[in-house]
Amino acid sequence: MLKIWGRRNSVNVKKALWCLEELGLAYERVDAGREYGVVDTPGYRALNPNGLVPTIDDAGFVLWESHAIVRYLAAKHAAGTLWPDDLRVRADADRWMDWAGATLGAAMRPAFWGLVRTPPAERDAREIAASVARSAELVKIADAALAGRPYIAGDAFTMGDIPLGCHVYNWMTLPIERPATPRLAAWYGRLAERPAFRRVVMLPLS
Ligand SMILES: N[C@@H](CCC(=O)N[C@@H](CS)C(=O)NCC(=O)O)C(=O)O
Predict the structure, then answer these.
(1) Any residues with Cβ below 6 Å from ligand 1, and which?
(2) Does the domain formed by 87-194 have CATH 1.20.1050.10?
(3) Which of 4, 52, 65, 169 to mutate to test the pocket of ligand 1 (most atoms within 8 A of CB)?
(4) Which of 77, 95, 174, 182 counts the most CB atoms within 10 A of its CB?
(5) The domain at 2-77 falls in which architecture?
(6) Phi and psi of 80, rounded to 5°?
(7) What pairs with residue 29 in β-bridges?
(8) How far is CA 119 from the centre of its chain?
(9) 147 Cα: distance to centroid of ligand 1 (angstroms)
(10) Residues in CB range of 170: below 8 A, 6 or more apart
(11) Predicted model pTM
């Protein structure tokens, strides 16, 4: 059975778990990272020298980097759906995956860490405010991209929606002011109807 290491409240672990759940694959999850440790053990470092989560072992094939995991699982199990057949639709989905992590996720990180993982007395209010402002500008880009399309790469739910959905869940859930993003909100509403999204992504931020 496929094995995955990673705590459930990690945004990057959520991406892999959501993909597994969408695919209906059986898997064993091992808590790892932060309070669970594991990631600094020699055994784990042999699998993932970064000491980060998630990591998967699929019948002896070890893979880390959450987006690579989502792509691998989608290509293996969901050609034509999560992994679009059309090269341009696939590239579009792929682009939004990396934008979600490298651009939106990176911009939101100080706000997320400040507001969720840092005691109030130790928070850097200016850093948080700058992160919130930058994130607000970025989500408008995703909002505009969703004009006339129900999902980020077009008519159907694809792997492109997975990392973006995880980061937007954090943005929608943080105790911050948000600009109106009606198309993003409608798309988020569609994601929230998916049982797999509710099971593994819509968890309390902690
Ligand atoms: N680019 C990597 C980043 C992985 C990453 O930074 N994971 C975080 C959790 S979101 C982590 O392992 N943090 C240390 C820990 O949990 O101990 C990926 O997408 O998999």
Answers:
(1) 10-12, 33-34, 39, 52-54, 65-67, 101
(2) yes
(3) 52
(4) 174
(5) 3-Layer(aba) Sandwich (3.40)
(6) 95, -15
(7) 4
(8) 24
(9) 31
(10) 11, 108, 112, 205
(11) 0.98
